[in-house]
Amino acid sequence: MKHWATVPQFALPTFYSLPTSITVVLHDTGSAPPRPTAQPVRPQTISELATATSRLHHLRDGEVVLYRVPSSRNWQARYKTQTGHWLRFSTRKRRLDDASRIACERYDEARFRERMGLAPAVKRFEEIARVCVADMTKEMAAGHGKRVFTAYIGVIERYLVPYFGQRYLSNISHKDVTEFEIWRNQQMKRPPKASTLLTFSSAFSRIHQTAIARGWISDRVPIPKLTVKGEKGTARPAFTAEEIALLRDHLLQWHAGVDGKTGEMRRLLRDYVDVLFLTGMRQGTESMNLRWKHIEWHTDAGRRYLRIWVSGKTGPRWLIAKHECVAALLRLHRHQPDLARMDFETLIASRSEQLVFRFENGEQPYEFNHVFRRLLQELGIEKSPAGTNRTLYSLRHTYATLELLAGTDIHTLAKQMGTSVVMLERHYSKLTATLAAEQLA
After folding, report:
1. Cβ–Cβ < 8 Å for 386, 365
2. What pLDDT does 351 receive?
3. Is residue 230 scored above 80 in pLDDT?
4. Virtual torsion, Cα 230, 234, 236, 238, nearest 10 deg
5. CA 93 to chain centre
6. How far apart are CA 30 and CA 2, in angstroms?
7. Neighbours of 105 (CB within 10 A)
8. What's the chain look like in SS3?
9. What is the pLDDT, as a whole number, of residue 51?
10. What are the angstrom distances between the C-alpha of 267 and each of 160, 358, 402?
11. Where in this chain does the record put each Tyr recombinase domain (predicted)?
């Protein structure tokens, strides 16, 4: 037996059309209604169906989808590439017909670019540069990045983005690069050295590689390169033996009475300067990545030497530290609470992964350049007699100068410092000529 019931009319959205009443058939078996054998699925209400329909639209056989998100009144879109990946973007339009037109245009352009062997999506230079900088910053924070990344980021933010920011990378021509280099030199107020030009070129190339890696440009698109040929830089000035003595003597008490991170930074600088001066290693990558496991004792002819493994600009190598360097390492060990419980010999044998140059809380200072510059200013030895600025790198040149004056063979010195004989002769030609004259006279 069947019972017929009439459901009264209820309000519906104006775009939805239904009869004025709905007839529902109820089955009666002569007893209570049968229980469902499965969990009932909650039916969508008319309003839910209408909302879903208004927020989701499929175009081009489902390969282009328009949708809305609660946080925006504009239509968002996504389309599928030939590789099956979905690319998403905002149409920046509120009207459905405007958004549909823009989404289809982007889809058609992407398909054309793919047929031409190009990447389906394009981004402006500034967007790519922002991602590139973020990637380098993350690498440095994780301890994998290079110290030179700081220079790259400075070049990108100060020069490359202000000039190329709103352009498309694929549209940059040789003429654009030439005009940029003229503008850059005007901003710098001097012709850049070859090393500076190399930094600019490397930063520009990293942005290009970021675009390729993210699929924003094809590796088949030719991108012009920045000029790297420039005036060769001169060797950074060294310190005299008297200035080194003044510097190291002042560092003995420079941290005294100074609290907090500033005082700890000054104390740490003393040991950093000593290690650089007594080994000839490069400041930056070689020194700041130094870990206790890289230091060991080496015995030769019954005599023990401190040997340090470093890796940097020219690859990994062993170097021999001056005996006096042990005192600096002992001080560093003493101010590291997590390692101070073991004696120095045990520490060296432990192959510890801990960094050598770090604060007592385990953190590592990002760099020592600023505090070292302040020290030189206080002592009045920031500039050489020729008027050039001295830096931490001057300690490496001081090491080379004093070794050559002491009669160290230039081939041995080249291996110790991780450089070439040609490079040493180029930077210290006057010094080597003087030594030869003294030997020959």
Report:
1. no
2. 93
3. no
4. 180
5. 35
6. 10
7. 11
8. CEEEEEECCCCCCCCCCCCCCEEEEEECCCCCCCCCCCCCCCCCCHHHHHHHHHHEEEECCCCEEEECCCCCCCCEEEEECCCCCEEEEECCCCCHHHHHHHHHHHHHHHHHHHHCCCCCCCCEHHHHHHHHHHHHHHHHHCCCCCCCHHHHHHHHHHHHHHHHCCCEHHHCCHHHHHHHHHHHHHHHCCCCEHHHHHHHHHHHHHHHHHHHHCCCCCCCCCCCCCCCCCECCCCCCCCCHHHHHHHHHHHCCCCCCCCHHHHHHHHHHHHHHHHHHHHCCCCCHHHHCCEHHHEEEEEECCEEEEEEEEEECCEEEEEECCCCHHHHHHHHHHCCCCCCCCCHHHHHHHCCCCECCCCCCCCCCCCCHHHHHHHHHHHCCCECCCCCECCCHHHHHHHHHHHHHCCCCHHHHHHHHCCCHHHHHHHCHHHHHHHHHHHHC
9. 44
10. 38, 11, 25
11. 234-441
What is the average pLDDT score of the chain?
Answer: 83
pLDDT at 439: 53
Residue matched to tokens 């950074």: 236
- On whether the CB atoms of residues 202 and 157 are closer than 8 A, the answer is no
d(C-alpha 180, C-alpha 4), whole Å: 83
Q: Which residues contact 335 (CB under 8 A, 6 or more apart)?
A: 267, 268, 360
What is the layout of strands, in order, in the sheet containing 64-67? Answer: 56-59, 64-67, 76-80, 86-90
* Cβ atoms within 10 Å of 180's Cβ, excluding its own: 19
How far the first Cα of the chain sits from its last, in Å, is 131
In one-letter notation, the amino acid at residue 166 is Q
For 364-397, what is each residue's pLDDT tens digit? 998 899 999 999 999 999 998 888 889 999 999 9
- Identify whether the C-beta of residue 290 lies closer than 8 Å to the C-beta of residue 357: yes
Residue 342 tokens read as: 């073991």
Q: Please compute Rg for the chain using Cα positions.
A: 35
Nearest CA-CA partner of 394 in 246, 314, 285, 280: 280
pLDDT tens-digit map of 244-300: 999 999 999 999 989 899 999 999 999 999 999 999 999 988 999 999 999 999 998
321-348 b/e (C-beta count within 10 Å ≥ 16 → b):
bbeebeebbeebbeebeebeeeeeeebb
C-beta separation of 280 from 418 below 8 A: no
The token duo for 338 is 């997590």
The tally of CA atoms less than 13 A away on the side-chain side of residue 308 is 28
Chain centre to alpha carbon of residue 183: 26
